[in-house]
């Protein structure tokens, strides 16, 4: 993909300029924070690892986005290592995946954009402690976040129908644009749900169904999940927040900039960031405050790399919780074939969601819950590799016949669930493996809690029921492994710099300011206390709008210039 | 991948080599390099960049077993998956050359083991090639997948990478690459249609 530059150059700051805020990461959170702070008049720089691409760079190219990592982190230059237990030696293996372009994961994501429910914020109090997990309530409630969910939905443009789900939390108003047209996968989900007494509702999607704020609606080309949108219909920060931030004249988007260290002075205050440019030349950008929005893997890695005499165990890590309690949502997957044409490859990935199992009957003895949707997210190569039942032939005439007859007639049910926070599931620095910049590779330690595996099986049974009720002529479950290694890279990177009121059990406070450092903020998936039931991006963005408001207020009140001190 | 590719993670447990061509072999290959490197206009007769004629013939025979050619229905051979694989080995999956060549050699070894006196996979008739395929899949699944994955990628990728010639793969499965679709998308997505099927 080629990188184009905007015709109108945005503001450029010198590295010696002490800007008000420098933000690491231009994704769902970083884009929103940049837009809010620059509109409030602050001088802002966003440093982004990846390139600044535009819609003309995006293609219907499945091989390109997967094999060539066109939009995501490149494991060849940024390797990961993995182990199931912290007593094991980690081995090199792709494990975490995130958007590595301006716009971050919002460029290539599917666009599911529903809100967390009230219970997600207070589940610990409502359901009680669980052995082996460090569940807490969030330091904020749904009601406190609701105005920012609303902000996010109306600022970027979300399709949906308020009141369609009987399980939805309260909301002050509807969606800015109506739901996308139902597809056969959605219609089949509705049919199955009706038979079972469940409730399928139009998927809230960050994809436009109608023109909104100068952008065109979806043309239903089908290249959403893993692809960049060629129509600018997907409401990524690339086409919403970022250009609005640039338009203020106060915000510089500095792409191809890989941050290696947050700099602190003797007083324990952040003074700026050291980063590599595209040619691996090192620069020090000075700033009055730093905001990390680099995702749940790169944010803790950067903090752990930022050691100093004052912070020998990494910055903002007096709790020892930086990088811990990694959650990535779990779930299960089933497939089914239908008599007639489903043609799921046309249009967005899913158009109906079911939240009847968001909270489970306590009598089941299973903690957490999940959602279901019927979808088709296999472009041709992926379908040939994963789309047929696991016991189908993998070569030969029968394999060819099944590919030919089934591609347009299959649908899948995805269950997306909670995953419990465990101290031992963590992002840390690999002691031996280095990346292409000579920095320690991301090491992942991960193993699912027994409760979560029980939950996946429960939800897979519900998914099979839905498939059957929808009228599938044949259906099959995909295996639930549960050995810790999920097989494919994880994409929801949550919980690794938890927000909370207790500095001994969290990294940032309820305003996303680091407990240990006055002028350091962190807001991205790492802020999550619990995992929700999947689809975290709207919540990440709502937190970002809220956090930006606090940052702006503190900066205007002079709190970020306060005398140097450790707050603890 | 992508926001909810958790779905994929649950079942993608096949061998690590599955990933070599597809999931875990990213490269820093920009479009201009790729365009310079990979010409979709190459005919199947043009010389390969990496594979010898014998290696190319072995891979093509393997590919024909994976997605066979039938009258009126092209298979992997006609889709030029060998060209796709050669282009990849010459560029963004160059690091996989040793294991790829090892897998090709294993086909010959397996052929010799099953049919004494035969030295090459390509020397066998179709049915015995099938026996070798089954044997290699059972004994060296990783090597089998090392060859099978590029067949699938070459069959169904964008033709700009050298495979999927004449969109043979997409035509086979009924995939149309378009920039615009409108309702009805399938047979179930209007109320009237759904009632008809109920």
Give a brief description.
By secondary structure, chain A is α/β, with parallel strands linked by helices. Chain A is built from twelve helices and 17 strands. Chain B has ten helices and no strands.
Topology:
The complex is a heterodimer of chains A (568) and B (198).
Chain A: E1 19-24, H1 28-39, E2 44-47, H2 62-67, E3 80-83, E4 91-92, H3 105-108, H4 118-127, H5 142-156, H6 184-196, E5 200-202, H7 241-247, E6 251-254, E7 258-264, E8 270-276, E9 282-292, H8 295-305, E10 330-337, E11 350-354, E12 370-375, H9 380-387, H10 397-406, E13 410-417, E14 426-434, E15 440-445, H11 450-469, E16 474-477, E17 520-522, H12 537-556
Chain B: H1 6-11, H2 18-21, H3 31-37, H4 53-66, H5 81-90, H6 97-114, H7 126-139, H8 141-156, H9 168-173, H10 191-197
Report on this model:
- The complex is a heterodimer of chains A (568) and B (198).
- Chain A is built from 12 helices and 17 strands.
- Chain A is of the alpha/beta class and 568 residues long.
- In chain A, strands 1, 2, 6, 7, 8, 9 and 17 form a 7-stranded mixed beta sheet that branches.
- Chain B is an all-alpha fold.
- In chain B, helix 6 (97-114) crosses helix 8 (141-156).
- The longest helix of chain B has 18 residues, at 97-114.
- Chain B is globular.
- Chains A and B meet through helix 2, helix 6, strand 10, helix 9 and helix 10 of A and helix 1, helix 2, helix 3, helix 7 and helix 8 of B.
């Amino acid at each position: 993909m080629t990188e184009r530059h905007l015709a109108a150059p945005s503001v450029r700051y010198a590295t010696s300029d002490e800007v008000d805020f420098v933000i690491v990461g231009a994704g769902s959170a970083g884009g929103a924070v940049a837009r809010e702070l620059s509109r409030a008049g602050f001088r802002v720089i966003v440093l982004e690892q990846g390139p600044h691409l535009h819609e003309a760079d995006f293609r219907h190219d499945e091989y390109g986005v997967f094999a060539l990592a066109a939009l995501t982190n490149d494991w060849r230059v940024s390797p990961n290592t993995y182990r199931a237990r912290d007593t094991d030696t980690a081995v090199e293996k792709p494990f975490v995946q995130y958007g590595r372009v301006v716009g971050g994961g919002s460029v290539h994501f599917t666009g599911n954009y529903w809100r967390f429910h009230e219970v997600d914020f207070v589940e610990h109090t409502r359901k009680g402690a669980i052995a082996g997990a460090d569940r807490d309530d969030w330091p904020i409630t749904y009601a406190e976040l609701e105005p920012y969910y609303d902000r996010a939905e109306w600022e970027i443009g979300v399709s949906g129908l308020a009141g369609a789900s009987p399980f939805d939390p309260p909301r002050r108003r509807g969606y800015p644009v109506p739901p996308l047209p139902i597809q056969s996968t959605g219609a089949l989900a509705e049919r199955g749900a009706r038979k079972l007494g469940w409730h399928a509702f139009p998927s809230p999607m960050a994809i436009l169904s109608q023109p909104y704020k100068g952008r065109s609606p979806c043309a239903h080309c089908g290249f959403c999940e893993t692809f960049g949108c060629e129509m600018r219909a997907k409401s990524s920060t690339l086409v919403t927040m970022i250009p609005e931030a640039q338009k203020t004249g106060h915000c510089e988007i500095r792409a191809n900039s890989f941050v290696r260290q947050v700099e602190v002075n003797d007083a324990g205050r952040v003074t700026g960031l050291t980063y590599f440019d595209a040619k691996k030349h090192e620069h020090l950008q000075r700033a009055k405050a730093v905001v990390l929005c680099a995702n749940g893997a790169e944010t803790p890695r950067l903090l752990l790399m930022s050691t100093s005499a004052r912070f020998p165990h990494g910055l903002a890590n007096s709790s020892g919780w930086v990088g811990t309690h990694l959650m990535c949502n779990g779930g299960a997957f089933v497939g089914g074939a239908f008599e007639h044409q489903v043609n799921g490859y046309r249009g967005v990935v899913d158009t109906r969601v079911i939240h009847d199992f968001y909270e489970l009957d306590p009598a089941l003895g299973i903690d957490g819950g999940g959602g279901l949707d019927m979808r088709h997210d296999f472009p041709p190569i992926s379908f040939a590799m994963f789309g047929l039942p696991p016991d189908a032939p993998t070569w030969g005439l029968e394999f060819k016949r099944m590919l030919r007859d089934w591609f347009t007639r299959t649908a899948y049910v995805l269950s997306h669930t909670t995953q419990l926070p465990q101290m031992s599931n963590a992002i840390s620095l690999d002691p031996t493996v280095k990346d292409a910049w000579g920095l320690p590779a991301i090491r992942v330690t991960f193993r699912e809690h027994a409760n979560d595996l029980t939950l996946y099986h429960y939800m897979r049974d519900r998914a099979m029921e839905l498939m059957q009720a929808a009228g599938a002529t044949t259906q099959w479950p995909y295996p639930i492994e549960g050995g810790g290694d999920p097989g494919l890279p994880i994409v929801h990177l949550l919980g690794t710099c938890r927000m909370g009121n207790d500095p001994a059990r969290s990294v940032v406070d309820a305003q996303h300011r680091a407990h240990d450092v006055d002028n350091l903020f962190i807001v991205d998936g790492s802020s999550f206390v619990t995992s929700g039931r999947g689809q975290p991006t709207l919540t990440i963005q709502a937190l970002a709008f809220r956090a930006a408001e606090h940052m702006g207020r503190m900066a205007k009140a002079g709190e970020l210039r306060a005398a140097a001190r450790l707050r603890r | 991948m992508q926001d909810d590719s958790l779905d994929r993670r649950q079942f993608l447990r096949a061998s690590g080599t599955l990933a070599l061509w597809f999931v875990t072999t990213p490269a820093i290959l920009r479009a201009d390099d790729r365009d310079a490197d990979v010409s979709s206009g190459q005919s199947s007769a043009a010389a390969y960049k990496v594979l010898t004629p014998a290696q190319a013939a072995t891979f093509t025979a393997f590919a024909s077993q994976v997605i066979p050619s039938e009258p009126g229905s092209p298979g992997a051979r006609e889709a030029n998956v060998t060209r796709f694989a050669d282009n990849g080995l010459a560029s963004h999956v160059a690091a996989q050359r040793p294991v790829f060549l090892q897998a090709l050699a294993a086909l010959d070894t397996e052929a010799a083991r099953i049919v004494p006196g035969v030295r090459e996979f390509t020397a066998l008739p179709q049915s015995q090639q099938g026996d070798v395929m089954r044997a290699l899949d059972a004994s060296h699944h990783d090597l089998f997948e090392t060859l099978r994955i590029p067949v699938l990628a070459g069959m169904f990728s964008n033709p700009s990478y050298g495979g999927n010639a004449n969109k043979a793969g997409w035509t086979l499965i009924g995939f149309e690459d378009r920039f615009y679709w409108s309702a009805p998308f399938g047979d179930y997505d209007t109320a009237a249609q759904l009632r008809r099927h109920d």
